[in-house]
Amino acid sequence: MRRYSLSSSDARRTVDLRDYEKVIAEAVTSVMTGKDVKVVVYKDCYTVTPTPNKGEANRIGRMICRSTLNQYCVQIPKLFTGEEIETKEEVNEPSTKYRMGGHM
Description:
Low-confidence stretches: 89-104
Shape: globular
Strand order of the largest sheet: 2-3-1-4
Oligomer: single chain
Mean pLDDT: 81
Order of helices and strands: EHHEEHEH
Number of domains: 1
Structural class: alpha+beta
């Protein structure tokens, strides 16, 4: 799953993305056709499952920029910043990466 939030810190504090839920959902579903896509829009971010590849994410961002959200683009122009987040199942699995000591 990937979480996307507005790149501009000022916009993150003032813009409620739930007001743009329809625009975001339509952009994601039109780019990721043929996939079982789940889009959840929160006040300050939105998530997409399954994670779009880089090309799909860029196309989604361009489509969303055609809305009134374009006024919040930062200098590149860049509207959203994405980050990979752990799902609930990954959080509950025991970590074996950093085991130390003699007990395994």
